[in-house]
Amino acid sequence: MAVKILKKESLIPGRTSRLVLDAPHIAATAKPGHFIILRINEKGERFPLTIADTDKEHGTITIVYLVMGKSTTLLESLNEGDEIHDVCGPLGRATHIVNGGKDHKVICVGGGTGVAAMHHIAKGHSKAGNYVIAVIGARSKDLLLYYDELSKFCDEVLVATNDGSMGVQGMVTDPLIERLKSDKDIKEVVAIGPVPMMEAIAKLTKEYNVPTTVSLNSLMVDGMGMCGACRVTVGGETKFTCVDGPEFDGHKVDFNELKIRLSSFRDKEAQSVEHHKCTCGAH
Amino acid sequence: MSEKLPRTEMPCQKAEERVKNFNEVALGYTDEMAKAEASRCLQCKNPMCRKGCPVEVRIPEFIAQINNGDLEKAYEILKSTNSLPAVCGRVCPQEKQCEAKCILGAKGEPVAIGRLERYVADKALAANKKTAAASASKDVKIACIGSGPASLTCAGYLANLGAKVTVFEGLHEPGGVLVYGIPEFRLPKSIVRQELEGLKDMGVEIKTSFVGGTTVTVDSLFEQGYKAIFVGVGAGLPLFLNVPGENLIGVFSANEYLTRTNLGRAYDFPNYDTPCYSGKKVTVFGAGNVAMDAARTAMRMGAETVHIVYRRTRNEMPARLEEIEHAFEEGVQLLELAAPLAFKGDELGKLRSVTLQKMELGEPDASGRRSPVPVQGSEFELETDLAIVALGTRPNPLFIHNTPALELNKKGYITVNEETCETSIPNVFAGGDIVTGAATVILAMGAGRKAGAAIAERFLK
Question: Is A56 on the interface with B (CB under 8 A)?
Answer without folding.
Answer: no
